[in-house]
Amino acid sequence: MLLVTDSTVLRWFPPLRAMWAPIGEQALVRITGENAKRTLWGAINPRSGRRVVMATQRSRQEDFMAFLHALRSAYPGRPLLLVLDRASCHTAQKSQRLAARLGVHLVLLPKQRSELNCMDHLWRPSNSACRPTGSTRRWSSTSPLPSAG
Predict the structure, then answer these.
(1) How far is CA 2 from CA 72, 93, 142, in A?
(2) Mean of the pLDDT values across residues 118-144?
(3) Residues with Cβ < 8 Å from 130, sequence gap 6 or more?
């Protein structure tokens, strides 16, 4: 069974990348006062579209190993071929040994090639939906903006 996997971190208070405001006016940035976060681990079967998703509080090696157990439980008794990036939790010796023991063959993608990972593309809409207004350079229209003059 071929699965493509990736993880993403969702933050309640994402980093501020850019904010628009008229010249001479301070931009209002809404924040929660908290910085809670969750890591989502996901795997997709590119043939069927079936996904397995698990949330953890961190993105450590132990969390990845728990995700390997979750994948094994989701696909019992079947050989698993897992395509993933070269994150340190994926390449750690303990993770490699556990994968081998569970019958999960890890196929590591080349470095800096996230476009090859289809699961990476599925995170973008969910990450965008979790960002409060004003935390990114995304605007639906420029019509409400005053004209530059």
Answers:
(1) 13, 22, 43
(2) 48
(3) 10, 11, 14
pLDDT digits (tens, 9 = 90+) for 84-124: 988 889 899 999 999 999 999 999 887 766 666 666 656 55
Of 86, 137, 128, 78, give the one whose Cα is nearest residue 104: 78
**Rounded to the nearest 10 degrees, how much is the dihedral formed by the CA atoms of 131, 21, 25, 33?**
0
Q: What is the length of the chain?
A: 149
Q: At 51, which amino acid appears?
A: R
Contact between 5 and 119 under an 8 Å Cβ cutoff? The reply is yes
Query: Cα–Cα distance between 64 and 79 in angstroms, integer?
Result: 18
